[in-house]
Amino acid sequence: MRKRGAALALLSLLAAAGTMFGVAQAAVPAATLGTLTVEDVAKKGTDVNAPHYTTSAGCPADADSYNLFIYGPGVFEPGLIGTTTTDVGIAHDAGFPIFQGLSFKDIAVDNQGTVQPGRYDIVANCVDGFSQEVKGTFTMPLWFTDATHYTVTDPASPPTTTTTTTSSSGHTSTTTPTETTSPAPETSTTTSTTESATSTDPGGVAPTDTTPRGPGGDTPSNPGDKKLASTGVPAGLLTLAGLGLLGVGILAVLVTRRRREVARSAWPE
């Protein structure tokens, strides 16, 4: 009786170990329908976040529901439910959003575990809501760099550098990537010097007459000029003529007075 009990106990232990081994070795489903993406603000986050994902296409026509599982190290190895089966927002002709029901930390705690650093695979399954048969999957990876912080970029991948060089001919060569180093474009500075030479040497520049001409081409007299204006008769002749007239006048007066005196002397007394 004791041998039989021991044998049954041994079989139970072997079965449990086999079950645990099988669960631990659960493979991550392949992406048969496309990929998942997250919004930019969720590309980096922490264990208390519950991101929402967007599928790259719709579910097949024979799938009326979907769910979401998370695979990773520790308690996440067999795949833990992130979103229970639902048909809310499902689409068949375009991508649709899937909201993670709990944060990574809460999912781990509900399964008596913790978040551990490593790669995690997010798997969305399009399923038949009644039979739970999987009709196709969408997947995406993310990495916890420690027990708290995650990123959608593989931290083990080497960073690529984008260098943009603009030549003077206008051709631009670009190499794509993550860390960007953009040298400042070459700037050509042209200094234009205008030399304005003004000669003040009177011997090197011919004088220019700026005095306006009169109607006949004559230059009008300068008000500051002390010379008399020319009238056509020399001033000396005018002076002599004036003196002559003055002498004639004086002579006429003398002759007249002389005649009066002679006439008076001829009167009888």
Structure, explained:
The protein is of the alpha+beta class. It has a domain at about 35-150: Immunoglobulin-like, CATH 2.60.40. The protein has helices at about 1-25, 105-110, 235-265; strands at about 35-40, 45, 50-55, 65-70, 80-85, 95-100, 120-125, 135-145, 150, 160-165, 170-175, 180. Strand 10 and strand 11 form a beta hairpin. The protein is rod-shaped, with a radius of gyration of 60 Å.
Number of helices: 3
Give the tally of β-strands.
Answer: 12
Q: What oligomeric state do the depicted chains represent?
A: single chain
CATH architecture of the domain at 33-151: Sandwich
Poorly predicted residue ranges: 6-25, 179-207
Distance between the termini: 222 Å
Which percent range fits the helix content? Answer: 10-25%
Structural class: alpha+beta
CATH topology of the domain at 33-151: Immunoglobulin-like
- CATH class identity of the domain at 33-151: Mainly Beta
Transmembrane segments: 235-255
Biased composition (Low complexity): 151-200
Keywords: Membrane, Signal, Transmembrane, Transmembrane helix
Protein name: LPXTG cell wall anchor domain-containing protein
Brief digest:
This protein has three helices and twelve strands. By secondary structure, the chain is α+β, with helices and mostly antiparallel strands.
Topology summary:
Blueprint: H1 2-24, E1 34-38, E2 44-46, E3 52-55, E4 65-71, E5 80-86, E6 97-99, H2 104-110, E7 118-127, E8 134-144, E9 149-151, E10 161-166, E11 172-174, E12 179-181, H3 235-265
Parallel strand pairs: 1-8, 10-12
Antiparallel strand pairs: 1-3, 2-9, 3-6, 4-5, 4-7, 7-8, 8-9, 10-11
